[in-house]
Every structure is written in structure tokens, then in C-alpha cells.
Amino acid sequence: MPNPQKSANGCVVSQMPGARPVTYDEPGFQEWFRLPVDPTAPGCDDKDHMDSWWVPCTGPPRPVNCEGTWGWDGGWSQCQSESVCEAQTQKTRTFTRTKEAAHGGTCNAPADGAVETSVLGCPLLGSCCEVDTNEKSPSGDEYKQAQANAPPTCVQNVNYKIITEAYPDACADKGIATKGTLSCCIGDGDWTPAIGSAASITDMSVPVAHGGYRNCKSTGLMTQKQTVYGQCNAAASKKTEIPCEYIGPWNRTTSAECDSNGTRSYFRNTKNSSKSTNKQEDCNYAESWYKSGGCGTDGKQWWERKTAYGGTITLEREARDCCYVGEWTTQRVSSWPPTTGLDVIEASRWNHYVEGWEGWRYIDKNIYGNDVNTEQGLATDSGDPHHFKYYWYKSRPTAGVCDESKPSEKSEEREYYCNTGRCRYRPRYYANAYGYPSGKHCVDNYVKCSEDDNDYTKAPAYNRDYTT
After folding, report:
1. 388 and 338, same structural domain?
2. Are residues 134 and 243 in the same domain?
3. Which structural domain, as residue segments, surrounds residue 152?
4. Residue 341: is its pLDDT beyond 50?
5. Which phi and psi angles does 445 have, rounded to 5°?
6. 466 pLDDT exceeds 50?
């Protein structure tokens, strides 16, 4: 028996002739048939024998196109890179097939698990190492560094500011320095003069030539200096206003060489010092000699002065030669000779006198030192020769050392008178015998003259008949 075969009409919507083919997944009927090889064969004409029949069928399945997705919002990942610096980052996405193509459907989508990359919107990663060499921080103390053929200098290690270091040792990998050195100034700390040292003390009583110092000023402040290395300004090598000991010079409290108590007092200014500011020393004080009283009648003058030594005051006295001058001896003197040339006081008609003098005398020596007028006081003496010159005198007592050339120290004062007219001398005997007045007589008045005046009337020895 032949095998059944499907009708070429395929699956149709009904068993009616001319029924249309079913569409996708539409139920219908499929006609099956078979053709006998020998229609005459037994059974071919049985009533249950069928040559065609209908079988339920379904239309062909609808074609299914493949489907898939990149993910939400395009499925792009974050921008990233295997390198952490100096690289272009990129983003990726992976396609996932959610439905495969079937029943003749098409598939233009990427394969399941397909990966896409993109740099769109992804940044270029920055430098692996970025350093600001202008911003530095010390990484240690300043230190002295030797130099070839030059004095030592000062350096200090510093760290530069690391702005970016993408991963540990990135700067080292890139050969970018993160450390350096700075020029600096360093001192040895050998500050001189050292506080408390001899050089820090100014003692004005010790001359520089004898080892004294003058580093500490009168304000009690000094400037210290140290040895410095490197880039140093002037201020680095010195410190000012450092307290120190100042001992000023001794000054007298007074301008006197020695004070009246026989001591000298001194003061001095000090700063930051325990030394004394005052001292006293003994000295010999002596005031000027002064007269005590007047010159004594013995020609001695007492002199006194105050002396002192070490606070002990003494009054010293000593007698010195002086010139004692007493009072003038004066009296009422008869105005003989009448022709004196002086003003006389007439107490009565027969009594003429002069006041203010002690007396009068004829000169007894001529200018050559020879005796003259020897008749004075001798009634019988001829008085050869006769010089008609006399003087008024007054005397006063003197003692000690006097200078007769000084008017104030003379023991006698004289006033001389000379006569140049006609004059005569009568001894007392002759005058008594013949009734003439005795003594020297002149016609003209005497006139005032000097002690050395030699121009006056002179006469030889007496002759009874001689008239000058």
C-alpha cells in the first residue's frame, strides 16, 4: 500500500474546495491522500477504504527576527583605562541577545556578548606626576656643606609640593624630582663677645692699652657677632641689644681738687653691674692763707688757713714779717722861721703856729752827703757851712719789714723848702752881744722845693761882718 502524502494545497482554512491556505499559526486542515498501485487489488473497494482524508493542521509559524539590547541608557560603562595616568580613557558596552531569529526571521543585531568601545566624552588622563617646585617645605635642619675651592655654604633639604602623583612612586618612574635643596644662612653660634666674658665687660678704669675692652656701651647693651656661611645678610652675623656689664669712668662729685673735709668723692655710672657707684679717698685740702687781724707792733702778721685730711679739719697759724705802721706824730708847731711859705694859724698876734706836722729842721747833709748847718742846737757853734733849706717832718713808729720807698710804709714824711734870696746867720752869742736876733734870717720867703733840689742860698762859715 502506498504511503500517504500531503495535498499540495497545504494547510487550508477549511475542507471546502478552494479554501485558502492558512496564515501563520492559523488552524486549518491538511488533506492527505494515497494512490493505490493496483486499484483492483483486494480491499481497494472496501467501504472503509479511503484514498484521501483531512488532518488538522496549523499554519506555519510566524517568522521571528532576533532581538537584543546594549543595556539601559545605551549600556555604556564609566570611562576607564587600564593606565591611571597619561592615557585616553574609554567606555564599553556589551550586547545581549534577548531573542534569536526563528522561522525564517532575520537577524541584523550584534552577536550575543559583542563588545563596543568608545572614547566619546571620555577624558584624557592627566600627568602621572605633577610637582610645584616653587612651593617648598623643609624636610630637615639647615646644615653646613663643604664646597670645592670655596668656603663652606649653607643648604637645607626641602620637599617640593606634589600636586599629582597618580600612583606610588609615579614621580620616581617619570624621573621628576620631588626633593631639592635651598640656599640658606647658617651660623657657627660662636657669638662674641660671649656674655660674661672679659671682652663683654667695659670697665672705663682699665685703658685699652692695658687690656681693657670697649664692646659694652654705656647703655649696658652690646652687639654680638658670629661666623656665618651661605646666603646671609648683614643682620645674620650679629645680634644687637644684648645686655652686658658697663662700668663707667670715675667722676668727681665736685670740681675741687680736694673737698673741704680732706676727701675726694667720686661717682660713676654702671649698667648690669654689681660694682659700686661711689667711692671716697683721702686728700690734702688747704685753703688760701688769710690775715688774722692786722700787722702787730712787733712787725709780725698772723696768717691762718683751714686744712683737712681724711675728714680731720685743722686750723693752721703762722707769723710772717710785715710792715707795722703806727700813727703819725703831729703837734702844734711854732711857725718859725716866719718866712716859711706855709699857711700858718694865728692864735694871737704874737703866736703863729702850724698844725699837721711834728716839727721842722734845717737839712744836715748836702746832696753830696757832707755835713751842713752844724749850728743846730749849739749856741756857740759857727754852723759852717750854712744852707738855707729846711723841711717840715712828721714821724710814725714802724716795725718789721717796711719799704721806705713806699709812701704807705714810710716812717717819716718830709716837705722841703728852699730860699734863693738874701740870707744871713747870727750865732746866739753874737746876737746876744749886739742885740740882734740869732739864727738864720732871710729877706724873702722860702718856697717849696724837692729833697734833691740844690738851687738855694748857701753861705760859708760865720763872719761878723759878713752878710749873705
Report:
1. yes
2. no
3. 129-183
4. no
5. -70, 155
6. no
